């Protein structure tokens, strides 16, 4: 294959696929949901999770006010939630009502949890730091929701039961390949 | 399915699969490579990329000294690189020599680029911030390496040509499913 090396970085997209999550937030009686592919766990103890959000987003405003957010992991079958929640602003409309998104009750926060999610984290905001055109919002995970049968006894997602939603870029989505799963022990 | 809700967060692992990358660094004549699954793009303009690294790691020391790092995206076929680079410390041994990892020349930094990577970012460190038991290291992407044939003209990874390496947790790896790729347009 031909190797290209360039300092013209542009809209770099070589790091996909990534799971696309639905970030939820609630403040002053308004709930919202947005799509995000830029997110990561960043500490085990305390359990911290970060998500990169544009300060122009309504969800950014809600999280800044309430100091809470939810990270919802959704199956491939509900990709329309990601594409529809990502295509509109919740400033004027209630996405939950408009898109008929069903909610579960949160345990430790006031953030909506998606009934369609196979797993979700409730987070309390601990830091909010601007990096370039986005803000890195870090929350401590204070509660976890998950479908028991979706995970193995070792807490690994069971791809025979759930197809996680992965974003590839350019409005293309896929999932993980259950046929390729391999156990590879660490070390030399 | 049975929905579990708990505030016993433990070693949460519901957010996998994620691409496993090889983080490379070089300082004072020493090169090193480590495995990381906790990483994300965080800004388009300027192009910023973050990776969460334990301050106990030798790579953390090298990045702190040199203010540079590389993010290498590797195919499923080279999963052994991830498991072996992740199982040993580079403090005493040269992983590149020991694991016979071939390097390509960097363009704008001194970080090693893996010849096996289907894409890689060269980053200049712009921030380093402790969060819990890890440090969030943020770099500006100053150069991109990629295999031309591995990406479509829209810069999307072509899963028919490359199987990206995804980590599932508990030493289990998989890839993305090329049969599930769907175009789903944004908006309601």
Descriptive report:
Two copies of one chain form a homodimer. The model of chain A has no long low-confidence stretch (mean pLDDT about 95). The radius of gyration of chain A is 17 Å and the shape is globular. The first copy, chain A, is mainly β and about 190 residues long. In chain A, about 10% of the residues lie in helices and about 40% in strands. The first copy, chain A, has a seven-stranded antiparallel beta sheet with strand order 4-3-7-10-11-6-5. Chain A has a three-stranded antiparallel beta sheet with strand order 2-12-13, with no helix packed on it. The interface between A and B is large, with 99 and 100 residues. Strand 1 of chain A pairs antiparallel with strand 11 (about 135-145) of chain B, so a sheet runs across the interface.
